[in-house]
Amino acid sequence: MIEAFLEAAKRYARGGYDVIVDGIIGPWFLEPWLSAAEEGYEIHYIILRAEKAETLKRATERAKLDKKTNTALVEAMWEQFHNTGGYEKNVIDTTTLFSADTVSEIKRKIAAGTALLE
Length: 118
Hints:
single chain, 118 residues, mainly alpha, Rossmann fold, two-stranded parallel sheet, globular
């Protein structure tokens, strides 16, 4: 699945488009993206992460699953993204940010080049 996303993104990029891939792409899925960066593609990796309590609150407010199941899934995913090792520089803490603030922070990181995969 990750390689399919990547190949589609590369095709659009070669066509001159700016491409944003949105999804759950943990550091454990980055090898193909790192290879693409080595091929000369400009790839920014940004992790949007709120504090655990806020993440659980947001998820349970919009959940399609029952609260117990959703809470277990969200806690598992939060733990996987809690310590991203060398990718902590790519994290934006969204705990207190509104959507517009998050977008501004993403744009700032891209403009500054602080989220580039190398």
